[in-house]
Amino acid sequence: MHEGVMQNWLDSSHLSANSMVYVEQMYELFLDDPTSVSDEWREIFDHLPKVEGVSVETKHSDVRDLFAQLAKNKDRMVVSGADQADAKQVKVLQLINAFRFRGHQNANLDPLGLWQREIVRELSLAHHELDDEDMSREFNVGSFAVGQDKMQLGELYSALQNTYCGSVGAEYMHITDTDEKRWIQQRFESIQSQPAFSTDIKKRILKGLIAADGLEKYLGAKFPGAKRFSLEGGDALVPMVKEIIHRAGEQGQKEVVIGMAHRGRLNVLVNVLGKKSGELFDEFGGKVDPSLTAGDVKYHQGFSSDFATAGGNVHLALAFNPSHLEIVNPVVIGSVRARLDRHNCDNGSKALPITVHGDSAIAGQGVVQETFNMSQTRGYKVGGTIRIVVNNQVGFTTSKQEDTRSTEYCTDIAKMVQAPIFHVNADDPEAVALVSQIAVDYRNTFRRDVVIDLVCYRRHGHNEADEPNATQPIMYQKIKKHPVPRQLYIDRLTKDGAISADEVKQLTDSYRGLLDQGERTVEEWRPMEAHSVDWTPYLNHDWDIAYDKAVSVEKLKDLGKKITTYPAEHKLHSRVKKQYDERVKMLNGEKLLDWGFAETLAYADIVERGTDIRITGQDSGRGTFFHRHAVLHNQEDASTYVPLENISKEQGKFEIYDAVLSEVGVLAFEYGYATAEPDSLVIWEAQFGDFANVAQVVIDQFICSGEQKWGRLCGLTMLLPHGYEGQGPEHSSARMERFLQLCADHNMQVCVPTTPAQVFNMIRRQSIRPMRRPLVVMTPKSLLRHPLAVSSMEELADGTYHNVIDEIDDIDASKVKRVILCSGKVYYDLLEQRRKDNQTDIAIVRIEQLYPFPHAEMDVVVEKYKHVKDFIWCQEEPQNQGAWYCSQHHFWKSIPNGANLTYAGRKASASPAVGYASVHAKEQQALVNDALTIK
Hints:
- 39% of the residues lie in helices and 13% in strands.
- The chain has a 9-stranded mixed sheet with strand order 3-9-10-8-7-4-6-5-11.
- It is elongated and about 110 Å long.
- It starts with a helix and ends with a helix.
- Its EC number is 1.2.4.2.
- InterPro entries: 2-oxogl_dehyd_N, 2oxoglutarate_DH_E1, DH_E1, ODO-1/KGD_C, Transketolase-like_Pyr-bd.
């Protein structure tokens, strides 16, 4: 509306000084929530005269002055007697708004009735100066979505209570997007949060409750005292998840990935995914094949199946999960991102993540915040996640809210991304089904996260051996007397005539019969069809499997031209342009190749073969140390150009993202991605290697042990900058010793490449070799530009990653008196000092792969030094860190019989490095001298 039109409207309106209060109140309502006023008022307020550079909201006083000035016009028509009615009308609209904002605080959410919540005064009529005399009066209901413009106040008040204070507490007014709020209002207000399900849907819900209750009772009777982390009290989770899957399938979803901790996991495995009950019983009885994997407890196991819906079969996957309660969330979402990429789907319409949380865990564990923060970012979004909180009101043994969180609800963390939160009483399964459907619809409409807070209880202790009365006596006295959800719903359905007692008995007996026979209990279960990912080529291989190693120099030069070419109009920063000009010289044979060019050539060769690459890290686009520059930023318009995206029409995708400032969430996401996509090269790069400390739980519980525990292969590559440069304790060490300590059963590779050719061939090997195991790389910092750390094009073309590199100088092996074994940057310090001292009786051997330790290659190299008795391991790290303690047994095995092995390096230290550069330099020189001095 233009200002002229606005002025015409004001001129024709019935404004008086008295009705100015009404207008102000309407405007205040609009500022609180644009959806709370009628479309006409909203249009008026949206088009009020703007003050340049200032939003309407911050110029409320200007609006007041405008109306006051107009009201002083004596020529305006005054409608006497309307003032009181106008004031009442505003109060009614404020009442509607109050229920939208705070109705959830008085909703009937706790099945046990133990919540002690203060009455919200804003939800009372008296607070809004409305009384019994107004109950029969009709008022305009504004945007209240009931399908009529006016309602009697009594009817309206009842509708508001039904909608916002029943079994559902909808919390969504923190959302700033008006369309999203209007959408949610329409869904709940139009039916007053009272679903009208068909008899078939009601029976489907009942079957889910019978199954949830039946399995727990069966396990409790057959395996008394065994830990199962019962779902009892939160039984509605089973029909909830099934309803979400049905709804998702109807809307075209092809895959659903579920992540959850142990509470109720066995129930979901059997009653949602369709795991054979007999297989679960065998696990309880210890009847498993121990030769398959080291295994894990049954309530950490994953499962996959297909699930029939009206929209076709949906592939289900329950992610394997350790006891770390929330860490599986980014793993699941990463897996979904891989599946979406496989479907060429960028809006989340083909795959859906569901994460199931505990009430104390979602509020208490930081990875939840990290995952929420990632949800709408370019490199990690998946079109929204449905997050279910099984809110049993007890964190292990802690039920006092002031001990578990600092917020009113455990779900308040979700407000950081303006996710709607639907609190629902788990004893009202139809309300549960309603919010399940709305959650799917919201997610698929707005492509954002949505949270369902399933308020329930825990019938037993944290596990079945606990005694919960010791710490929650009042709660558990109440629980013992409280009917189970199944029975409550049966009573409701039989009372309504929706089902007969005979039908209930038949359903119950049928389910029990399936358990007795050890059969599947899920009607929707279907055998898995062939899916688009095939792990077969990557199974049952050893490290030495043959692969296409060599690449011609001509091909490398062709690729080099493509990755050094960019549009002429794309103006680079002078320092970046200098690096690209240097790369052209390397390409033309004028210079040897540096680290950044060799690494980028590896990526070019891989995508040219048709393989996708995904790289994430906090500075990955340019490289933390200004060496990569895979993403070129135009200095004139900030546009970007990525040469690796322009290799050929048939090339694989090259994606590189500067990550959110997170380690544990991002690394878990990339692990999940890599476990779902074996055909891609997936790389996570730490800004500094020690940042992996923050993601240690991912390394410990997934990366190093996932294959042995769960049989899950993963080809994730971790690039961890490592090297002692005098920068202090925090950015020196990638904690190599921790990775080496975790190495066993050939579970992963730990490499320390020292030349550009080595990094080129290591990256290619990780992608081309048909083996998918994690690769941990100690990448350099100063070596990125070290004058000796260069390679020829021919060395790259050789295609071999050398796990061991022998002496490179012209030294007579027969005259060698000492052999120094080392890895990483210290090699160049040793080499330069030895050359400076003109020593010819010491050989330096680099071990470029510390695990799996290359014994065969070492045997070949050491053969020429079999006469040497003096071997020394030299490292930069303190003695209790680095490779010395964890790999010493490998060193001893590699040296000749009768030879001695000693240590040269820093003394043991609680800190990775000193804080003063001068002290660092003295220590570094001392360890080099120690290694090179033959006594």
